[in-house]
Specification:
Blueprint (H helix, E strand, L loop, with lengths): L1 H9 L20 E5 L3 H7 L4 H22 L3 E8 L7 H24 L3 E5 L7 H13 L7 E8 L1 H17 L10 H6 L11 E4 L18 E4 L9 H13 L18
Parallel strand pairs: 1-2, 1-5, 2-4, 3-4, 5-6
Helix pairs in contact: 1-8, 2-3, 3-4, 4-5
The chain binds 3-methylbut-3-enyl trihydrogen diphosphate (2 copies) and magnesium ion.
The site of one 3-methylbut-3-enyl trihydrogen diphosphate (IPE) has 11 residues, from strand 2.
Length: 267
């Protein structure tokens, strides 16, 4: 059944601006994670400063949140600032911090009104107190919502997250609260920033770069990746729909034999 529906979606990969707002014909990912890349190149192509690309990137983010909610996606994770982005020039870092603050101050009420629940992942140590305060406020003021979960990866690095989780578990073992033998995948996942959030089904990266850049390495062990040529500020409903259609065409096997003719028969 699901394979049939997937095939239907495959016939309509660019089915127009409204496509992402309808319940998807094929398999709709429960959790979409996005590496929002290409803001700087978008600006450079227009002879504009990089910060203008980041500003337009925030507008694309607003569109993405709206479309994800309308499409019935349950979780949208966005890579907003990586642990490695500290290596950028101070001025650009300040611009990005300023944009995050403005986004939360300006959009939080709207997100709350739209029943969006905000979660923040990444290392809050090393962030300025005003940023930490805003991130906390975004989480606490939307904690009671049960619509789209918007997971903001800020000062996030996957390896760093795994190390923090390992350290937290080691401390519990050292205190005698946890037996080392009791650590399994579920325990480990529960020590990550993403605890309680299902793994991403689909990861979208814009701008033509084909790499993971330390984004959710544990959680995306079995995710489907869609790499798009478009730059993040250009992201819109049509591009989102095309990525969802590509996902619907994929056959997820998880190490098994899948649903195709060779996989549906006898064991
Ligand atoms: C993505 O755009 C935004 C962040 C990484 C914060 P970039 O700033 O990486 O844009 P490019 O890759 O230089 O075009
Ligand atoms: C990944 O983009 C990080 C974010 C989108 C926040 P980058 O532009 O920083 O990634 P690299 O450096 O090209 O791998
Ligand atoms: Mg980039």
């Amino acid at each position: 059944m699901a394979a049939e529906l997937g095939a239907t979606a495959a016939l309509t990969p660019h089915s127009g601006r409204g496509a992402a707002s309808q319940p998807h014909q094929g398999r709709l990912p429960r959790h979409v994670a996005v590496i929002m890349d290409g803001n700087g190149r978008w600006a450079a192509r227009r002879g504009l400063p990089r910060v203008e690309g980041h500003r337009r990137g925030v507008e694309a983010l607003r569109r993405a949140v709206r479309i994800a909610g309308e499409a019935g996606i349950s979780y949208l994770t966005i890579y907003a600032f990586s642990a490695e982005n500290w290596s950028r020039p101070q001025g650009e870092i300040a611009d990005l911090m300023g944009l995050l603050k403005r986004f939360i101050r300006k959009d939080l009420a709207e997100l709350a009104k739209n029943n969006v629940r905000v979660r923040v992942i990444g290392d809050r140590a090393g962030l300025s107190p005003d940023i930490v305060g805003l991130l906390d406020e975004a989480e606490t003021s939307t904690a009671g919502n049960d619509g789209l979960v918007l997971v903001v990866a800020f000062n996030y690095g996957g390896r760093q997250e795994i190390v923090r989780a390992a350290r937290a578990l080691a401390e519990r073992v050292a205190r005698g609260e946890l037996a080392a033998e009791a650590i399994d995948e579920a325990t480990f996942a529960g020590a990550l920033d993403t605890r309680g959030i299902p793994d991403p089904d689909l990861v979208i990266r814009t701008s033509g770069e084909v790499r993971v850049s330390n984004f959710l390495p544990w959680q995306c062990a079995y995710a489907e990746y869609v790499f798009l040529q478009e730059l993040w500020p250009d992201f819109d409903a049509e591009i989102f729909a095309a990525a969802l259609a590509e996902y619907a065409r994929r056959e997820r096997r998880f190490g098994g034999l899948g649903e195709g003719p060779s996989g549906s028969g006898a064991p």
